[in-house]
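Lecture 7 notes: from sequence to structure.

We start with a single chain of 219 residues. Read the sequence below before looking at the structure.
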Amino acid sequence: MHFNKLLPFKKTHVCAALATKPARCFVAMSNKKNIEKYKNPRLDDDNKAWIYWFLTRLLLERVTAFCAQHVPEARKDQDKLRIIFSRRGDLTYKDFTDYLRRMFYERGAQVLGYKELVWSVIDFDEIYAHDHGDRAGLQLADVIAGSFFQAVELNRGAQVECDPSYAKLLKPLMHHNGRRWYLGFGVKPMPLLGEMNLTDPQKELFTFYGANANSWRKK
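Now the structure, written as tokens:
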């Protein structure tokens, strides 16, 4: 199952059904317009995967914190995440494991001011890539990703310019800080909203998830 190939009424049905499940979900949403022609002098020009690994890192900052909070005290440092990617032909997943290992060995010396992963729930041997059709969990993740993509993507497969209706249905699943604040927790925009130059239809999703007037000001 691929979410973007479903008919609209089926997308609604799938999201409404998924929203009733005992799960917690996270998304990292990057605005590609903000990184066009960007070059990191520390990377070679052939490294096309850096943005993918970086966004995965933003997700894992939040996922590892959530999971660590829910590990029973008696099982601290024993229960680990299993990280499963939906395989893409242009990515080498050993590179991601190497990226994580480098972050681990450089922990405490981050220069960008981002959060640390909670390393107690990371196992470098529990990182896998499988074909999309082989794991139901990958298809469920595709529903989450596809719903939020369609909420902000202009003129690609949606009935309207942007259609946030599916992502809105998923709100019961999205992680928040305990006070129903979703932005930066279950819904992580990158860069900050004030730097994205979004259209009004694109802003609707983030407003629904808690953005206010201050959110759109450039820092």
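Residues 50-69 form the longest helix (20 residues). Keep this in mind for problem set 3.
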